[in-house]
Task: structure prediction
Amino acid sequence: MDPWRYSTEGISVALRVTPRGGRDGIEGVEMLANGRSVVKVRVRAIAEGGEANRAVTELLAKALRVPKAKVRLLSGATSRMKQIAIDGDPAKLGEALRMLTTKD
Result:
């Protein structure tokens, strides 16, 4: 099952973020112990003062080629588990996420 949900405005993505991860990148999909799947993301930024959240939204905007204003944090501001909304064409965003999270 995909870690994102489609809506009329775009998609909502479940993430597990590793701050201070040494580099910025999307590392694929991971299945959690509770059966939920999440997109694994790592960022160089520290988890302080919203730095990691900002880095995550910028990384997703760049990777999905959407303006930063279209990517917003829905929940998990102080948690490693986050829910992010991305506005745009849901089918295109879902396909782009699938390409980014599928290992060759």
The CA atoms of residues 3 and 34 lie 13 Å apart. The chain has a mean pLDDT of 94. The radius of gyration is 13 Å.
